[in-house]
């Protein structure tokens, strides 16, 4: 069974000191590097939040407060601080992440009107990123997923992978939750397990 490692959004803005820093984000980087060093993957894929500066998920572009929740183009949207803006330092991958074996990068969140938590598609479930096509082209059947943040982009990437028929494994030690809601991380794990995602220690 051919397998791939998907590393979700290990970017400066989600790491320590970033605009949308996830607690414990820097601590998972050595674990992710070790996975790449000790395992044989057919493909190692990075997803990258890559927002235009006027992205509608930013509170600043809607006259809203960070943390507000609105309906945007017919779907719920959490209001975030400006983050991972195309071409900025915050959008770059963290310098400590070993990218020597990375084979492909998927950029997401490029549509100004829709956010994209999943590495596979926008939140409106309409615009695909090309990740599914890439995996199928390389005959990948099993995906292991790590990165940031557990309760948002990692969760939705895992759920979509499972829905698309991949054997889907989450490395618990390779992710961390932003916990917008206090139990966000715990609830994300529960939801994933219910949807055939295997959680590895």
Automatic annotation (TrEMBL):
Pathway: Cofactor biosynthesis; nicotinate biosynthesis; nicotinate from nicotinamide: step 1/1. Its EC number is 3.5.1.19. Keywords: Hydrolase, Metal-binding, Pyridine nucleotide biosynthesis. It is an enzyme of class 3 (hydrolase). The lineage of its organism: Bacteria, Pseudomonadati, Bacteroidota, Flavobacteriia, Flavobacteriales. InterPro entries: Isochorismatase-like_dom, Isochorismatase-like_sf, Isochorismatase_Nicotinamidase. PANTHER family: LD05707P, PYRAZINAMIDASE/NICOTINAMIDASE. GO terms for molecular function: metal ion binding; nicotinamidase activity. Residues 4-200 form the Isochorismatase-like domain. Belongs to the isochorismatase family. Pfam families: Isochorismatase. GO terms for biological process: pyridine nucleotide biosynthetic process. Gene3D superfamilies: Isochorismatase-like (3.40.50.850). It comes from the Bacteria. This is Nicotinamidase.
């Amino acid at each position: 069974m051919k397998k791939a490692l998907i590393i979700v959004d290990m970017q400066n803005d989600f790491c320590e000191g970033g605009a949308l820093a996830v607690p414990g984000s820097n601590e998972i980087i050595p674990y992710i590097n070790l996975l790449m060093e000790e395992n044989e993957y057919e493909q190692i894929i990075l997803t990258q939040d890559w927002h235009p500066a006027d992205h509608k998920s930013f509170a600043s572009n809607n006259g809203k407060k960070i943390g507000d929740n609105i309906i945007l183009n017919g779907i719920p949207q959490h209001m975030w601080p400006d983050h991972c803006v195309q071409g900025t330092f915050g959008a770059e991958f963290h310098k400590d992440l070993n990218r020597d074996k990375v084979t492909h990068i998927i950029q997401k969140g490029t549509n100004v009107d829709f956010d994209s938590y999943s590495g596979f598609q926008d939140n409106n479930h309409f615009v695909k990123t090309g990740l599914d096509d890439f995996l199928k082209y390389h005959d990948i059947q099993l995906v292991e997923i790590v990165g940031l943040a557990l309760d948002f982009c990692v969760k939705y990437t895992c759920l979509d992978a499972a829905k698309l028929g991949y054997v889907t494994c989450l490395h618990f030690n390779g992710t961390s939750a932003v916990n917008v809601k206090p139990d966000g991380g715990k609830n994300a794990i529960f939801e994933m397990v219910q949807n055939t995602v295997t959680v590895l220690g």
